[in-house]
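Researcher: I'd like a structural prediction for the single chain below. Treat it as a standalone chain; there are no partners to consider.
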Amino acid sequence: MKRGKRMMTNILVILGSTLIVWIVLTVVVGKKGPEKVAVIGMPNAGHKALIVYDPDPIYNLDEKISKSFAEGLSEKGWVSKVVTVAAAKNFEKEFFDLYVFCANTYNWAPDRAIRNHIKNNDYLQGEHVVAITLGSGSTKRSQRLLEDLIKQKDAILIDSRTFWLMKPNTESKTKRSNSKIAVEKANNFGKEVAERIKK
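Model: Treating it as a single chain, here is the predicted structure.
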């Protein structure tokens, strides 16, 4: 009888600890990150993009993906402002040919900072937009929610891709880093989008 009670107590302690860790992580990753701005490409380029992400306090894949996408655009003659959500407010009145939102997935949804930014701004109407959804591997629902948010703003969603931390980013077997493959694919994605908008 005592053994059963001890086992039940241990299970409750483990479940309680897991719940506390999950709540703390949800609060931490839900906070808007610091203001950061990076300009990639020649300032006098013919096409401009605003790429918005919210930095992940645990992994840095979102910033790497955003900058790699911008580098792909740059190779096709674009200039990009890669900014955190906290800095995006400074560029709301500036004209861009393309808007890119890179969202992390938490609890099967795009991160709150990106969601709120899209919901609370009306500058996307009629604009070209790309959605990038990141996650460990289960991103299907998060991608759909991000796409829906963009479409609700009457924006033109020209493409949407997902990149993963754990789920393989390529079908071929390789010992190469999964995140490095994601960064390379984001670069190629940037080139594809640049060519598509120019046409």
